[in-house]
Design a protein that fits this description.
Length: 438
């Protein structure tokens, strides 16, 4: 049987415990805010906001303490930056100017700038010489080597749903000035042993009743004028047009793009070999004869490509793109020997082309391959704006070039009509511009 004193002791212990739990806790609080800054807010131009500790529970009969609220953020980003740095507010990173990136609502992008390019030259073709010294080549085609020339360079793209794909159209072109080279009579006196002559026979051709070769032999001057121009238009579907390029937040330091589309490229090549056996001034008189060749190459076909972007700094990146494709070609060709008195004609009774003018216009079709590589650097100075500068090289096979159309026998008009389109060439040079996202 339990002793009465044990119940008394147990009751005393329980009463003591109840009195302890009924009292409010005795706690001390820091007099200043916590040192750890909040992660939910950041502003580039607002004072730091320190959160306050929770107020102690109100005593019985007292109103509950009101927690202080942070002041609205102003200036800088003009708003709150979402956690994780996404969206337009994130474009300033940890401070204005560090890693700008565009907002997710942009749909259009593009580039406007200029290109400065040239073409490679072929092996030189010998045109004129000194009759007193066959080793004295007076005029070669590389003496009028291709000029560097300016042209436009523009791109316009439209992002598709989700922003992972885009449809992009681009153009670049060059139209340099003509290059000219002159060869003069070696001693300034025509009709002696030291004269200016041509390597071409111009067999059986007459101009204004005189053999064409006579105008080039013992001439005062031979002149070569060369010209070219190129225009390129592309329409491509691009995967990941900006991933890693600088127009996006985050991303990887190295990223890849691919593209597929169509390209149209027009390349014109011009050649004029002129003579004057009366004086050294080309003024359109009847004693001047011009041998002209003009070629238009038009290529259209499909291409694929792969691009690489490398972001090595918060606002600086490098890129490279390679493209290749298979193209159909349409080539137009004109060869003519003429002067102010009209066209030269074949004067050979035994020739099937007797009496025909040396004024040939022909065209043909074929196939070609075009490959391109370009690389450059980009500096993104604002969320929607970048400056870019790069180098481009375009290789073409299956192209018709003027110097490949010079015949062995000029009186063979049928042979002149045939177009030699197995040439190759490279267009190359730099470009620069301003890119935008809208």
């Amino acid at each position: 049987m339990p002793r009465p004193w044990s119940f008394t002791a147990l009751a005393a212990v329980c009463a003591s415990a109840a009195s302890v739990f009924a009292q409010p806790p005795s706690m001390s609080y820091p007099s200043t805010g916590y040192a750890t800054p909040p992660t939910a807010y950041r502003a580039s131009a607002s004072p730091r906001i320190e959160p306050q500790p929770p107020a102690p529970p109100a005593a019985s009969g007292q109103a509950e303490a009101v927690q202080p609220q942070p002041a609205p953020l102003t200036g800088g980003n003009s708003g709150l930056m979402p956690e994780g740095g996404k969206g337009y507010g994130a474009s300033y990173g940890d401070g204005y100017g560090y890693w700008p990136c565009a907002d997710s609502c942009a749909l259009w992008y593009g580039r406007a700038g200029a290109s400065f390019m040239t073409r490679d030259d072929l092996d030189p073709v010998w045109l004129s010489y000194n009759t007193a010294d066959l080793g004295d080549g007076r005029l070669f085609t590389d003496q009028a080597s291709p000029n560097w020339g300016w042209g436009g360079d523009v791109v316009l793209g439209r992002l598709l749903a989700g922003g992972c794909y885009a449809v992009e159209v681009g153009y670049w072109g060059i139209d340099p000035s003509n290059r000219q080279a002159d060869a003069f009579d070696p001693d300034g006196t025509v009709g002696n042993a030291t004269d200016l002559d041509t390597v071409f026979a111009f067999d059986s051709l007459e101009y204004n009743g005189t053999a064409v070769a006579d105008f080039y032999t013992n001439a005062f001057i031979h002149r070569l004028v060369r010209s070219y121009e190129a225009h390129n238009v592309e329409l491509n579907l691009v995967r990941s047009p900006f991933y890693g390029s600088g127009f996006t937040c985050g991303g990887h330091h190295v990223s890849f793009r691919w593209l597929a589309g169509i390209r149209y490229l027009k390349f014109n090549d011009g050649f004029e070999y002129m003579t004057d056996d009366a004086n050294t001034v080309f003024d359109g008189d009847v004693n001047e004869v011009t041998y002209l060749i003009d070629i238009d190459n038009n290529f259209i076909g499909g291409q694929v490509g792969l691009g690489l972007d490398y972001r090595f700094h918060q606002v600086f990146s490098a890129y490279a793109t390679a493209k290749t494709g298979f193209y159909g070609s349409h080539i137009s060709h004109r060869s003519r020997i003429s002067g102010s008195a009209g066209d030269a004609v074949v004067n050979n009774a035994a020739s099937p082309y007797n009496g025909q003018a040396f004024n040939v216009n022909t065209s043909t079709t074929g196939v070609a391959f075009i490959s391109e590589i370009d690389f450059g650097f980009r500096y993104q100075f604002l969320p929607h704006w970048s400056a870019t500068m790069g180098y481009r090289a375009v290789g073409i096979t299956g192209v018709a070039l003027t110097t490949d159309q010079i015949p062995l026998y000029f009186a063979d008009i049928g042979g002149v009509r045939d177009i030699n389109s197995d040439g190759s060439m490279i267009l190359h040079g730099g470009y620069f511009g301003i890119e935008f996202l809208y």
